[in-house]
Amino acid sequence: MSPTLSTALISSGDRAPLIARGVTRILGGRAVLRDVDLIVPAGARVGLIGENGAGKSTLLRLLAGVDEPDAGEIVRPARLGWLPQEVPFDSGMPVSSILDTADAPLLALERTIEATAALLGTDPGVDAAYSAALDEAERVELWSRHARRDALLDAFGVAGIPFATPLGEISGGQRSRLALAALLLSCPEALVLDEPSNHLDDRAVDALREQLLGWRGPVLLASHDRALLDEVATELVDLDPSRRAATGENGGGQAVRYGGGFSDYLAERERERQRWQRQHGLEQRELSRLRGEVAVGARAIDTGGRPPRDNDKFIRHFKGARVEAEVARRVRDAERRLAELEAAQVAPPPEPLRFAGLPPGTAALEGDDPLVALESAAVDRRLAPVTLALRAGDRMLVTGPNGSGKSTLLAVLAASIPLDAGRRTAKPRLRVGVLAQDTRLAEPHRTPRELYERALGAGRAAAVPLASLGLLGPRDLDRPVGVLSVGQQRRVELALVLGRPPHLLLLDEPTNHLSLRLATELEDALGTHPGAVVVASHDRWLRRRWSGTVLALGG
Question: What would the DSSP string read from start to end of 486-539?
């Protein structure tokens, strides 16, 4: 059988499940995860979602065996494939080193077959080992692995990189795509993937989707890619610590399962929140009634809340101790019900962290001329000639395959790289804000509040406080950015750009690493910005909703 992408992923072994039981992880004195239970059976493709900082990457690292839990148990298949959100690398090592690491278990299997074949007939145990090795070789398509490697590298857009190229000389996106191709080539028994579609163009995402849909072992992936989740997820798990306060369901309440894709999750999450609000409202009304009953006491019970009439006084005196005993019993019952309900009451639904939108502060520049214009602007081997003009209020989405020059175009618009041909013109005093594709906070010891004030100045930071943007929770404003998650660091970078909204806002893959809710809120907020906005993105969900101009590079 000729190797194809659709047959490349055949899992090995007995396809054991991936399990977390009562897992707790303490980082920096804070419980990032507490009593998390999660089972991913063979054949399931579970999407892990949640707000930035909720612990998604922490849980994935525990399941992959990179870190150890502070409490609880992890059960995983013997050969597990792990793709981190940011791939570690030695800049001096060649590209081939990544592929050689992936090929190692397959080479070991090949050697086992050769060794046992030479001893066939000498021992029944050797014959059984040889047969098992052949079965394994069939499952992982051992003898077509080189053709599968070439197909995967081509699908992920890295086939043209010479194997001798040092890893430090290729982009972070290329390294991530190489690592993903190598991981799939190794055919592990289970996949644990942290943002696998970052840096993937449409063709590469199609290849990844095909791989995941054909996977027979357990798959757990954390992803911001709403379209991919709709297409491949058999269920979603929302890693939300607020659930513990609400219900305590699903193994401690922090990992809540939803069947179906992202669109189904949105609808069910909204229904769940409405049920939560209704239950909390009913309980609060009952608590108020019981507190009133206890406070009013015997007179409210005996007289119904009205002042006692002369006849009431006579009856109370006549009945004497028997009436007082009944009143005392009813008050005690109300006090008991009140204590029970106060102890078991559902907490109010926490207000989610919501992006407040772009703050004011973009003063219009005089004149009707474009903010920036390019005339046949080109950069050798990076950007084919482009002609465009952007005015205040313009919205442009830049699309195209990897390598077509999207990031280069944004750099040209920002005047951060020189042109090899053509011309760029811009209005005087044009203020440009750039959100780069990769996270680049150079001072990990600084807090978000410190970085924000240094970038904007004390006056602007006081006028538009970082907390008012709704990008970071109060507890994260004064923590070193180095201890924040990648998604939270991305939020800090976004705050540095948006704290003083520029005339020209350039966003390179803005939804990478951001939570699904924030990605949607950011997309909606861009429509209200009085300046021009240019977005370069592979995000298919964003592209489907886009209502502005679209510039397709690379054909």
Answer: HHHHHHHHHHHHHSS--SEEEEESTTTTS-HHHHHHHHHHHTT-SSEEEEE---
Residue 85: Cβ-neighbour burial (10 angstroms; 0-12, 13-18, 19+) = buried
- Percent of the chain at pLDDT > 90 equals 43
> What pLDDT score was predicted for residue 243?
55
Report the 3 state secondary structure along 100-134.
HHHHHHHHHHHHHHHHHHCCCCCCHHHHHHHHHHH
DSSP state of 42: T
CA-wise closest residue to 412 among 443, 444, 439, 377:
377
For residues 194 and 225, is the Cβ–Cβ distance under 8 A? no
Range list of H helices, 247-261:
249-252
User: Strand 71-75 vs strand 18-27: parallel, antiparallel, or unpaired?
Assistant: antiparallel
- CA dist 8 and 518 (Å) reads 35
CA dihedral 159, 163, 165, 167 (to 10 degrees): 80
Return the amino acid letter for 59.
L
Residues 442-475 pLDDT 10s: 899 999 999 999 999 999 999 999 999 999 989 8
- pTM, rounded to two decimals: 0.73
CA-angle at 311, arms to 307 and 314, nearest 5°? 105
Q: How far apart are CA 329 and CA 335, in angstroms?
A: 10
**What's the sign of the alpha-carbon dihedral 130, 132, 138, 144?**
negative
Pair of tokens at residue 134? 């052949």
pLDDT band per the 50, 70, 90 thresholds, residue 338 = confident
**Cβ-contact 454, 466 below 8 angstroms:** no
Three-class secondary structure assignment of 2-27: CCCHHHHCCCCCCCCCEEEEEEEEEE
Backbone angles phi, psi at 193, to 5 degrees: -125, 130
d(Cα 456, Cα 499) in Å, to the nearest integer? 7
Give residue 297's pLDDT band: very low, low, confident or very high (50, 70, 90): low
First to last CA, the chain: 34
Q: At what angle do helices 202-213 and 145-155 cross, to 10 degrees?
A: 140
Burial of 62 per CB tally in 10 Å (0-12, 13-18, 19+): buried
In the predicted model, what is the mean pLDDT of residues 44-55? 89
Q: CA 529, CA 532: separation in Å to the nearest integer?
A: 7
> May I ask the CATH class of domain 372-552?
alpha beta
> What is the rounded CA–CA span in Å between residue 252 and residue 115?
50
Are the beta carbons of 396 and 551 closer than 8 angstroms?
yes
Which range has the top average pLDDT, 86-100, 434-448, 453-467?
453-467
Report domain extents, the chain. Answer: 5-260, 270-344, 372-552
Look up the CATH number of domain 5-260.
Answer: 3.40.50.300
Same topology, domains 5-260 and 372-552? Answer is: yes
